[in-house]
Amino acid sequence: MERTFLMVKPDGVQRNLIGDIVSRFESKGYQLVGGKLMQISQELAEQHYGEHKERPFFGELVDFITSGPVFAMVWEGENVISTARLMMGATNPKESAPGTIRGDFAVTVGKNIIHGSDSPESAVREIGLFFKEEELVSYGKTINNWIN
Ligand code: RTP
Ligand code: MG
């Protein structure tokens, strides 16, 4: 079953949006298989956002993601990587549709509430950066029979 890495960023944690965000993915029909509140180190932030290290906003991005606790999660389900990105909305909240997480809660690109893996390769890499195998719990639920 497909898995993705999602993370409520420091702005989302400070604004008490963890519950709403978790609820959206639960209601959709995805399953939470790992989750923790944590403070990201400078080193982990630079690894996580390594693809952006030459971009002008890299310093700000690392400062922001390390500025307070984040809620890191792994979610499982059919097509969860790309569907979670749709549920998050466009990177820039000026373009993200109402009904999406960024469309409903964010105003500027630098504080856009949530991160989600953008491909199967990113998902594997990011899950490995943030979670140990034993922190992930796969389990059956009879309700899935009504969804898949
Ligand atoms: P994320 O990685 O955080 O899930 O966001 P994303 O895939 O939608 O966007 P990405 O291109 O990976 O950019 C990572 C984060 O960098 C910040 N950003 N700032 N100032 C700017 O022009 C700018 N562009 C991107 C955003 O916070 C974005 O989420
Ligand atoms: Mg990205």
Automatic annotation (TrEMBL):
Nucleoside diphosphate kinase-like domain residues: 1-138
Single GO molecular function: nucleoside diphosphate kinase activity
InterPro entries on file: NDK-like_dom, NDK-like_dom_sf, Nucleoside_diP_kinase, Nucleoside_diP_kinase_AS
Principal location listed in the UniProt entry: cytoplasm
Compartments in which it is found: Cytoplasm
Highest taxon above the source species: Bacteria
Residue stretches spanning the membrane: none
Binding site for ATP: 9, 57, 85, 91, 102, 112
UniProt-annotated catalytic positions: 115
EC code: 2.7.4.6
Pfam families: NDK
Family: Belongs to the NDK family.
Subunit record text: Homotetramer.
Name recorded for this polypeptide: Nucleoside diphosphate kinase
Organism: Sporosarcina soli
